[in-house]
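re: that chain from earlier
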Amino acid sequence: MSFAHVNGIDLYYEDHGTGRPLLFLHGWGTSGRVWGAQVADLARDHRTITVDWRGCGRSDHPVDGNDTAGNAADVLALIAHLRLDRPVLVGSSVGATFALEAALAAPERIGALVSVDGPGYWPSQGMAAQLDALVADLAADRAGTFADWVPNWYGPKASRAQVDWTVRQLLDSGVFIDAIFTECRTYDPRPALPRLAVPAAFVHGRQDTEIPVEVSRTLAALAPHGELHVIEDAAHMPHQERPDAFNTVLRAALARTAPIAA
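^ sequence. v structure.
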């Protein structure tokens, strides 16, 4: 088991393969385990690093720093700790937000960005009441809320076992990550996207009912080096639902996102 002590906490990570480094960031409340199908494929010719971000999985569950700024800082600190040379950040859901903010903060240290069904500006679009209700429901009945909500993350290709496994991961995560929903009420990266200085691929499941595909389309259009990839027959978790299709798209995106010369 490998841990990196960064920003006062221990982050659990796994590091496989050699080659161009890829750093995978999971979505809210899950863990680096969600990238198993990507590691199995990409580690053949890439260095693949998965991490449980703060409050999740096997990493520390601190009271503080459970926001975008704290997690983006952890990403950059982990890159320094592992001495990664301009890795590609691959982030799912809110993990894509952390990856984007890290790339905006330190583009010289990032090779490219792959956003997978990232929420972007969507939660801030008149959804304050829904987010407040979600936080209240989690406080009142965490297990029941997950049981009702998580099936909506997946499309028709997902199995019930996959959904149940996700719920178990969420139950293992700390309650302090709920603070991220408060921040989502106002987060909007669109004004910053035109200054994103690294290649960026925005991957989205066509059947995502949590975040519309139009969000990734909009962000890809705003990013100077952005491109959009839509995966059919997948919802919010295409890397788990359609791993073969997702890996094909990811490899194609990697081939087209060679680092931009400084």
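The first strand starts at residue 2 and ends at 6.
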